[in-house]
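assembly run, all chains below
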Amino acid sequence: MHLLRAEWKKLRTFREVWVGYLLGFAFLSFSIYMEKDSSSLKWFGVQQNIYAYGATLTAFLIVIGLSHIFCYERERNTICLIRTAKNGLMDSYVAKIVLTVQYCAFVIAVIGILSIVVNGYRFGFADALGKMTEGVYFEEVPMSNLAYCIVQYVFLFLGALYFAGFVLIVAVIAKRSAWVITICGGCYIAFLGYYYVGQIQDNWLGRICNFLFQYGFSGFMLQESYSRLSATSVMPWGDWEQIWKPILFVIVATTFEFAAVWLLWKRKEQR
Amino acid sequence: MKRELLRIMKMPLYWLVIGGGMTIRLVFAYFDRLYRQDSFWNSFADFWNKIGAFTMAVLILVVLIRLFSMDREHGVQDVISSTMLGRRNLFLYRLFAVVTGACIGVSVLAAANTILSALFGQGIALNNEWIMAFLTRTGIALCGSVGLSVVAGAICDISKSQPVTLCICGIPFIISIFVNADVVRPFELFWFFRYGFFTELMRGRLLQSMLGFWVIWYSTILVLALAIAIAKRKERKEL
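ok done. output:
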């Protein structure tokens, strides 16, 4: 608990985190303001917010916030001190992973609550508990409009953890936050670009990109992979009955990532 | 000054980034040679539009400006700033080194692009207009790179944090790439993002409309960033 508190305290001392919060808040306010024209779409519009701005903003805040936590000890040369403590490496690893999970939950809760509350305030909450009739990724979902919005943010949380695992792996390897930001931010932007313009390519390169997008973090953050991996061969949309498949996949993939972070974190540096 | 420049030149990452950019160009040149011979020299002239601009942005923001945050990262900031030439003079030396590093980067990329294109483009008809277009765009990209390195260097010196500079300077660069020029109108927010943060210049494009406004805008950004950085360097010594 003390270690976790210390990790949060450490996170608050990083200057880039505050700059990131400032830029992120400006981006979120601007995006919500721009949504005012699509109020007629009501809850269907709110459900599109995640891939309009929610996923990208989450990715940005994760890259800015988590790029430093595994680099800090090596930058400050305190890693040797941690190694000398009993279970020092394990304890600090657990604290950092718990911080990662809490940070992702915090970021998504803020974005989700602001988005739902502001948009709901615009057109009213009257239909919030009404049955969901229209969706992009699933043909029929047996839940209310509001519940589906929350479920989508839970999906985003799982995708965010997947991405956070990737950020941590790069951070442990690269050991410099500027490089982590560039590599992870660049990967996300590349996949985002592919999502918007690149999916028409039907050659070997297109198929590789498609595979990486579908099974990579961006597909799960943008919600696309949840429908693709749960789709049966006949339907173009996802099958809600099969939703456990992508959920299981993303949990297993994230676990592997965190295990990889541990293996890389505990290895000794060669001098 | 010479030492700072040598420090940059000895950074493996400096050459790694340039090498990475040229590898991408090599792949594109190879495919152009195979499948798009009609637009081969057009791609050569258009080098700064995408690959060149991205390579220079990464080079400046990830490699070059680290010179300004290194002291703080190593915990020697207070000691260095207490020395006679460790404040304004050191800042100016480093700035000059970063600008020179950016100029060398642009020159190396331009030379490598020319050599690669000459190697792969043998036998493909060459128009003199493309050579002139490439040279003009290289000059414009050089101006953009120098401008970005000065502003980014000043911001990094003010904040003493490379990731902060990466956020402040990198985000407008990325947004600028995504903004559609046909949709934005003068004095809109995205119009400033599109043209107001050196990206357009780094892509080898001259700002054609409202040139007077942009001269004042860029001069203001440069002077303001430099003035704040120098003023901050003059603050009371810690040791």
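Chain A has a mean pLDDT of 84.

The longest helix of chain A spans residues 88-123.

not gonna interpret more than that til we talk
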